[in-house]
Every structure is written in structure tokens, then in C-alpha cells.
Amino acid sequence: MWFGYLNHNYEEEPDIPIGADNYFSPGPPDRGQPTHFAVRRHKDIFSVTVPKDFGDQKLTWTLTVHGQTLQVPGTLNPVWIIDRKYTTRGANINNPYSNTPPVVSVEPVEKTIGKSDSLALKLSATDDGRPIRNGKSVGMTMDWVKYRGPGSVKFDPARAKIEDGKASTMANFSEPGEYILQVVVDDGSGEVSGNFGYHCCWTNVEIKVTVKGDDHVRAQR
């Protein structure tokens, strides 16, 4: 099951920790969902695998913020199945699988830094060149967001075109703690490009960052 969210805000990015205000049921409340909610729409940002015999049960994601509770139910009802034939943009009309998601790698995948340190994130990506517009590949775009973590994260740049399969950004953290950062690499047919009715083609990658107090980091050195 794929889950996403729509934050109606254009400015506020609420943080909702795992717990009474951000949980799944039944079963474990933490299913890898975000705790930081960037502005506007974010589709298919994480998935949950359910047992083969899940049947007609419901897996519900519950969120409460500013006193308002919303729930997102997940089911195996066939009406909600993502059919690539109808939800892929930029493919050959006779083959919906001809547009494939980018293949992405990020360095580092896990890092410990001090609070005053900047973290350089290096991204590499390859793609099949689709979709094509005016005879040319639209090209890939990266979009960085904080996925989990106690403080704010500033990316420079947060969004940029990927040139020759390479891109980089700098991340700075407001306070110590454990963070998960997510980058979405969109080939021009997905959410980052504003194509809200589609489910392909983009790729999500998460990295883990531990931010220590500067005194602790100097002691370790």
C-alpha cells in the first residue's frame, strides 16, 4: 500500500511525532510514515507491506493537528489498485511500462555531524529519457525535504534540475537529534513536475543523519 498526504498550507510545515497524533492501526503504530509535513501535495512517499491474507481488512493512518483528526484508510479493494496503463505519463502509448522511474543513489546514506556543520549531499541518477517534449527529454529534477527529525533543515538548493546525471545540495540543521531526509527525483512526469494524476515516474530515497552537539563531536575527534 502506498501512502501520501496533502498539506493544505502554503507556509506551515507541521511536525507530528509518532504517537497519539500520528499512528497506524491495527498493528505497529510506526510504519515508516513521515513526522514532518511539507506544504501542499506529496503522493506515494512511503509504502506499507501487508500479509497476503490481509483480505478485506483496513489499515488506517490517523493524524491529529491543531485539534483536527484525519484518517487515511488503506484497503485491497481493486478499485484502488494503481494500474500503470492509466497512471503513467510520458510512456509510449502502446507500452505503459516504457517510461521507468529514475535509478538514484545518494552519498552519504548515513552520517553523523555536529550541529554547526553543513552536510554535503551528492546525488547521481540515470533515466530512460522519458517523457519527451518537443523532441527532447524533459529531464530530471531533485526535491529535498525533511522527513523526520526534531529541528528544521535548510537545503541549498532544495530543488534543482539534475545536469548530466549529477546534483548536489547542502543541508544545515537547527538542533541536534536523529533525522531522516528524503529526496524525490522526478523524470518530468510526476508530482514535482505538477502532474498530480499520475503515479509514475519518480524515485524516493531516504538518508539518515545524526546531529550531535558540537562539544560532543569535538570530543570524538
Features:
221 residues, 5% helix, globular, 2 helices, Immunoglobulin-like, 2 domains, mainly beta
Tell me the layout of helices and strands.
Blueprint: E1 2-7, E2 22-25, E3 40-47, E4 59-65, E5 68-74, H1 84-87, E6 103-107, E7 110-114, E8 119-126, E9 132-133, E10 136-137, E11 141-148, E12 153-156, E13 159-161, E14 166-173, E15 177-186, E16 202-212, H2 214-220
Parallel strand pairs: 7-16
Antiparallel strand pairs: 1-3, 2-4, 4-5, 6-8, 8-14, 9-10, 11-13, 11-15, 12-14, 15-16
At a glance:
The chain has 221 residues and is mostly beta strands. 5% of the residues lie in helices and 44% in strands. The mean pLDDT is 89.
Outline the structure in words:
By secondary structure, the chain is mostly beta strands. It folds into 2 domains: 79 residues; 133 residues, Immunoglobulin-like. It has 2 helices and 16 strands. Strands 7-16-15-11-13 form a 5-stranded mixed sheet. Strands 6-8-14-12 form a 4-stranded antiparallel sheet, with no helix packed on it. Strand 9 and strand 10 form a beta hairpin. The chain starts with a strand and ends with a helix. The model has no long low-confidence stretch (mean pLDDT 89).
